Amino acid sequence: MIGKLNHVGVATPSIEESWKLYRDVLGVPADRITERRALPEQGVWVSFVNLPNSQIELIEPYGEASPIHGFLAKNPKGGQHHVCFEVPDIIAARDEMRAKGATVLGTGEPRMGAHGVPVIFVHPKDMGGVLVELMAEPEHAH
Length: 142
Ligand code: CO
Known about the structure:
The protein is of the alpha+beta class. The chain has three helices and eight strands, in the order E-H-E-E-E-H-E-H-E-E-E.
């Protein structure tokens, strides 16, 4: 079974513009919002908005090969992109998804995610239209 909802991924054409929404409109203190940082191997810039019980993961395209260009072409202002659940064992979770007929994206080999733990993505066509990220439980609570 999946564990905690770790974060909700939100794609945006501009993290700096999105900060204005979370900080100025929704009232998140600036010190709860992390610096924008590049994850070149994943093709995104990322910034976390830390909420009392979860995070919003803001992702902006990095480079021409970014996997979120297609999403932003369809949703030019950005939008909710994925949800991420923690699992105790990422390999077991991948195998279970496949055994149940769900499509794991890419090679299926877990990749290092923005939180420094391995992740996989499950195709939205098998998840009720939601792109699902599964991530290994971080060793330390965040
Ligand atoms: Co994510």
